[in-house]
Amino acid sequence: MSNNTAHEEPELVQLLTPEGVFTEHPDYPLDIDPEELRGLYRDLVMVRRVDTEAVALQRQGELGLWASLLGQEAAQIGSGRALRPDDMAFPSYREHGVAWCRGIEPRELLGMFRGVTNGGWDPAEHGFHLYTIVIGSQALHATGYAMGVQRDGSVGEDGAAVIAYFGDGATSQGDTNEAFNFAAVNHAPVVFFCQNNQWAISEPLERQSRVPLYKRAAGFGFPGVRVDGNDVLACLAVTRAALNSAREGQGPTLIEAFTYRMGAHTTNDDPSRYRVSAELEEWERKDPIQRLRTYLEKEGIADEAFFAEVEADADKLGERVRHECRTMSDPDPLDIFNEVYAEPNVHIDRQRAEFADYLASFEDSGAEGGR
Amino acid sequence: MSTKLTIGKGINAGLRRAMEADPKVLIMGEDVGKLGGVFRVTDGLHKDFGADRVIDTPLAESGIIGTAIGLALRGYRPVCEIQFDGFFFPATNQTFTQLAKMHRRAAGKVKLPVVIRIPYGGGIGAVEHHSESPEAYFAHTAGLRVITVANAVDSYWMIQQAIASDDPVVFFEPKRRYYEKAEVDTEAPLHTATPMGSARIARPGADATLLAYGPMVKTALQAAEADTDHSIEVIDLRSLAPVDYDTVVESVKRTGRLIVTHEAPLTSGLGAEIAARVTEACFYHLESPVIRVAAFDTPYPQSRLEEHYLPDLDRVLDGVDRAFAF
């Protein structure tokens, strides 16, 4: 019965082909210098290394779970580098590349997956909200935040814009659709950035949608665009244009970054049960890092020494990530009671005191020879 | 200046004062604008503060709470109106997984001063989903403060206290009591009002403690008045999370008996929690078990039967009698 309408041949905005050939796009001109191009390459390599290390650390029992970004580096670095300091991003739980662009230390991400924190960083300081695990919830937070930006009068060329990240699965959630509608009727300065990685755990795109996802935007009354999510330059150009449109008062845009989750959904998942290896091989040929490298080499923008230096830096980063993960200390047991409320709460305070006494009783019994 | 206000007008006046005091205070919800809400609680605010501060939202409860969270992250203090108790449920995810947890998730680095106003409870002859008492769901969720009012003095002050709080506050409004009147000194400073976390002894007594909140406070006071054989102390709980156990326990230690009444169903209701706590704290002072007088463990019935479903004066008095039978 399936006629795969959601899978219809994509009309993608693409600047860099899988073979590393650059073509200008009439609607999305990209003003970028060699230094920035090399920077993008470095970002891609670094976040892939963080991801590789994290998967390994999970296998070694150092992390409880990890959600790999393998294959989605270009979508995240391209969109993440389009953000300005005053912009605000609302991520899902796989946006390690965007986090990198916002100056979040890899250890902060690891801390959450290790179970040391539930969040870690200061969202306001980084313009990067905490990872949101319940699918699609953050699309509404982003929209509300954008309504706040409007009310602050922070619009115009120097204004702020907001971006919400989610996956193809989230487009099935009511919250995401409510966010589209709230953003549309309020003309809110928000960009919805959907990384369509083709799979919501084991469910393929045709189980999520009968229409290409970017076309959903039209039903809500704002533009939708599909970009090659493995093309970092196209992701940068399209996101920059959408953010500028938002900050200048043109309202929301939905960007569908057409990409592929090359790894498992999380380290608990086994994709071999639901997808065929030929699919993976097809997408490996579209690898976001290799295509930029080919372009940089062909155009003489970067030489062997540069690539070797990036590789060495990635090795150093990997070592740091491993060390920082393994040396993270567990939180104090009484942290359970911290920051449940912003204001004093006698009920929590009493439970904390009782539990502290209970814990202390073991110390006493230890002094007396244990029990 | 002392003015006679209904509970509904008290909330309206409190909202107005909070909006005048702080430009970051916003009202949002369905029909809260020109209509002034289906109960007219936001009447006149749209006219005086404009559509940017009194926001008519699309009809989507999750959207209301979810965007309120975003607005709060940007520094605003949104007051969300959920039109009726039974319509809250689409917003449970945003409230329970996001609003309640985010302060802790962020290790205190973000604050979410969001107020959710919910007209609740029965007794108005409404159709399905318009008469429920869902407060126990909220009281069970760490990170939320849950309060309810029983008179216009509290409605005027507690809505302002809820807005001033840096924690998310769920503010339950007893819809069948919206038109109850009281004298309110509307010009006293906010800090002189009774703190919203505390219970209030609504009527002193010596023989038994009758605990109620929201719509049942009036019924409890009538019951205490009607029982001429005993001296009944009535406590208006006011704060459902956290509960002011100091006031409750102190009262029960004096009277030796406790009867708890609420409109919500009996099982796993707030009364069960209070009974357990008071038993633990007052075991040697109790002359009888803690008695609960609540609604039945059924869906809220069709309105022609609600007078049987809701605890009324007779059922509360029956509960008091049961306590004295021990």
Task: Give a brief outline of the structure.
Chain A has 371 residues and is an alpha/beta fold.
Taking the alpha carbons of the first and last residues of chain B, their distance comes to 48 Å
CATH fourth-tier homologous superfamily of the largest domain in chain A:
Thiamin diphosphate (ThDP)-binding fold, Pyr/PP domains
Determine the number of helices of chain B (DSSP H or I, runs of at least 4 residues). 12
CATH architecture designation of the largest domain in chain B: 3-Layer(aba) Sandwich
What is the succession of H and E elements of chain B? Answer: EHEHEHEHHEHEHEEEEHEEHEHEHH
Count of discrete alpha- or pi-helical segments spanning 4 or more residues of chain A: 13
Cofactor (chain B): thiamine diphosphate
Organism (chain B): Nocardiopsis gilva YIM 90087
EC number (chain B): 1.2.4.4
GO molecular function, one term (chain B): magnesium ion binding
Note down, in words, how this protein is organized.
The complex is a heterodimer of chains A (371) and B (326). Chain A has 13 helices and 7 strands. The termini of chain A are far apart. Chain A folds into 2 domains: 16-327, Rossmann fold (3-Layer(aba) Sandwich), CATH 3.40.50.970; 335-366. In chain A, the strands form 2 sheets. Chain A has a 5-stranded parallel sheet with strand order 1-2-3-7-6, with helices on both faces. In chain A, 45% of the residues lie in helices and 8% in strands. By secondary structure, chain A is an alpha/beta fold. Chain B has 326 residues and is of the alpha/beta class. Chain B is built from 12 helices and 14 strands. In chain B, 57% of the residues are buried. The radius of gyration of chain B is 19 Å and the shape is globular. Helices cover 35% and strands 21% of the residues of chain B. At the A-B interface, α6, α7 and α13 of A face α3, α4 and α5 of B. Chain A: Residues 44-316 form the Dehydrogenase E1 component domain. Chain A: It holds the Pfam family E1_dh.
